[in-house]
């Protein structure tokens, strides 16, 4: 009975040894990870604090970048506007015939200078010579008739009442007057025929340079034809029409009203040719424009220049620098400023905190290698002119006074002082 009860009792289960070992290892790993976390939490902030607080271990800061600067100060400078222009002939004549005829001779050399009155073409003058001869004969006949009428009138007047009645005297007087009128008409016809004969030699009405002949010997030409035989152009002096934007005119007027611009008594201009050559002669304003073009918004102003070497030819496109007067303004070196898409200029200055700061401003023309600036810059500001390739807004800079030579190049006084040390 006892044995049966023992057999019916549930046996006791024993835990395997490998499971007990794994549990112990997990417990050890957890303890190690806790210790590592404690070390990181305590030591890392202390190490960072030590690194920041110890000058020996701190990372060295970059020194401010040296840049060349120019201090801004208002100056009296010429108010110059740069505007496009086009050369116009001072005098230009299309040569046309005044009588009908056939071209007999071309009397000039194409492209050469001719004087006023020099012959250019000779027309066949046979019919005009014949007309002159006929009119001369008419004048001779009229003179003879006048002599007869004069003698008849004198005889009738002297013998009035002795064979000549009052009516006879009056008739003789009328015949005499008619003879005078006939002679006058004959002389006028002769003068006209001689004038037509002179027109068969076509002459230059001005001093100038001839163009290529548009006709050949044997061509028939007629009075009043639309096609010119040639063109004679006077090139010295030469006129230049400059197209001034109406906005520029308004700007100048406002500056005059504000007292910042003093206008010259005579407005002069210089020219830059198409090959970028500066023309050596200064021109003067001839005709100020008074009407704004509805298509271009510009006002034409005509200037006159001496052109002894005939370097400027009609039709050339030129660039004019018009000196209007004197203005109080700042001069910003052109190398220091860039044109923005808005049309304004931008440049870097040295800010109050010693860092580079970008500013924008408008220009009122140029003078030498500088922009003329009236607004947007204050007295004493330092414009950065050198080292601009690496300068951005916020860059710490060390300003070094510099100068700009006539070629727009920077002369750094700092580099010169270093060489002397």
Describe the structure in your own words:
- The chain is an alpha+beta fold and 421 residues long.
- It has 3 domains: 64-74 and 327-410, Beta Barrel (conserved putative lor/sdh protein from methanococcus maripaludis s2 fold), CATH 2.40.420; 78-88 and 233-325, Efflux pump adaptor protein, beta barrel domain (Elongation Factor Tu (Ef-tu), domain 3, Beta Barrel), CATH 2.40.30.170; 96-226, OB fold (Dihydrolipoamide Acetyltransferase, E2P) (Beta Barrel).
- Helix content is 31%, strand content 34%.
- The protein is built from 6 helices and 21 strands.
- The strands form 4 sheets. A 6-stranded antiparallel barrel has the order 2-9-12-11-10-13. A 4-stranded mixed sheet has the order 19-1-20-21.
- It holds the Pfam family RND-MFP_C.
- The chain crosses the membrane at residues 29-51.
- InterPro entries: MdtA-like_b-barrel, MdtA-like_BSH, MdtA-like_C, RND_pump_MFP.
What is the element layout, followed by pairings?
Layout: H1 2-8, H2 17-53, E1 65-71, E2 75-95, E3 101-106, E4 113-114, E5 119-123, H3 126-158, H4 166-199, E6 201-203, E7 208-210, E8 220-221, E9 230-245, H5 246-258, E10 261-272, E11 283-287, E12 298-305, E13 317-333, E14 338-339, E15 345-350, E16 356-361, E17 366-367, E18 370-373, E19 382-386, E20 397-404, E21 410-412, H6 413-420
Parallel strand pairs: 1-20
Antiparallel strand pairs: 1-19, 2-9, 2-13, 3-5, 3-8, 4-7, 5-6, 7-9, 9-12, 10-11, 10-13, 11-12, 13-18, 14-15, 15-16, 17-18, 20-21
Subcellular location: Cell envelope
Domain Multidrug resistance protein MdtA-like barrel-sandwich hybrid: 92-233
Domain Multidrug resistance protein MdtA-like C-terminal permuted SH3: 328-389
């Amino acid at each position: 009975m006892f044995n049966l009860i023992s057999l019916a009792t549930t046996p006791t289960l024993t835990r395997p040894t490998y499971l007990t070992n794994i549990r112990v290892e997990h417990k050890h790993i957890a303890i190690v990870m806790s210790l590592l976390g404690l070390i990181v939490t305590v030591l890392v902030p202390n190490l960072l604090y030590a690194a920041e607080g110890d000058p020996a271990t701190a990372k060295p800061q970059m020194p401010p970048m040296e840049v060349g600067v120019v201090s801004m100060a208002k100056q009296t400078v010429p108010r110059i506007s740069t505007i496009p222009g086009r050369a116009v002939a001072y005098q230009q004549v299309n040569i046309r015939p005044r009588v009908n005829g056939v071209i007999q001779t071309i009397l000039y050399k194409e492209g050469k200078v001719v004087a006023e009155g020099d012959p250019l073409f000779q027309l066949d003058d046979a019919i005009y010579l014949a007309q002159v001869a006929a009119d001369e004969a008419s004048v001779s006949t009229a003179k003879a008739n006048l002599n007869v009428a004069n003698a008849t009138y004198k005889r009738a007047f002297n013998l009035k009442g002795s064979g000549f009645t009052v009516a006879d005297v009056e008739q003789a007087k009328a015949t005499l007057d008619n003879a005078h009128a006939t002679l006058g008409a004959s002389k006028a016809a002769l003068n006209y025929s001689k004038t037509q004969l002179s027109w068969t030699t076509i002459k230059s009405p001005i001093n100038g340079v001839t163009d290529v002949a548009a006709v050949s010997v044997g061509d028939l030409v007629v009075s009043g034809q639309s096609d010119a035989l040639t063109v004679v152009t006077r090139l010295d002096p030469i006129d230049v029409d400059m197209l001034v934007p109406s906005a520029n005119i308004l700007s100048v007027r406002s500056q005059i009203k504000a007292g910042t611009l003093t206008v010259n008594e005579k407005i002069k201009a210089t020219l830059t040719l198409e090959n970028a050559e500066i023309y050596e002669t200064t021109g003067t304003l001839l005709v100020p424009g008074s009407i704004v073009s509805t298509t271009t918004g510009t006002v034409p102003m005509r200037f006159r220049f001496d052109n002894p070497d005939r370097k400027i030819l009609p039709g050339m496109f030129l660039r004019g620098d018009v000196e209007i007067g004197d203005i109080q303004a700042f001069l910003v070196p052109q190398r220091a400023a860039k044109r923005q898409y808005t049309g304004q200029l931008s440049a870097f200055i040295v800010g109050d905190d010693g860092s580079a700061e970008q500013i924008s401003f408008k220009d009122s023309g140029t003078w030498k290698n500088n922009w003329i600036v009236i607004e947007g810059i204050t007295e004493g500001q330092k414009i950065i002119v050198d080292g601009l390739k690496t300068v951005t807004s916020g860059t710490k800079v060390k300003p070094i006074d510099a100068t700009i030579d006539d070629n727009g190049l920077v002369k750094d006084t700092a580099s010169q002082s270093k060489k002397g040390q």
